[in-house]
# Entry
Amino acid sequence: MWFFTSAENSLVLEIRSHLSEQLLRIGLYTATAMAGIVTLFVVFAAIYAIVSRFKKYALLLTEKSDRIERSYVIIGTVVFSALIIFIYSVTVIAYTTQVPFDLIFTMDSGFYVITDTFFNLHAPENDIRQPLLGA
# Structure
């Protein structure tokens, strides 16, 4: 660009740099969105396959079980569901922000709630030990 002055040349280079950054950013966003869409379809296909297989075995189990066995399953489900609701209503250890760090090993402590570890990739405790790892 021999016909531009040095100031005009630097302006043209800056515009090109900004344009290439914007195109790169758009390309990365598009690639991320496409990867997310593909992953979503794969996850739903896997869930569908697992649920359909589980449904087959659950129906087989209910057909082979008698009335007493089914009543035990129903009673156990009701009792343990009530127990879970009761325990969560009398304690705040799993979801409060007032719990100090490392009170519970690495499971749902208040520190995770404060730093939003499950969704924040840059949280200090978000590493390979975290099962959701910035899900």
Summary: The longest helix spans residues 6-64. Residues 19 and 25 are 10 Å apart (CA to CA). The chain is about 65% helix and 0% strand. The chain has two domains: 6-89, 91-135.
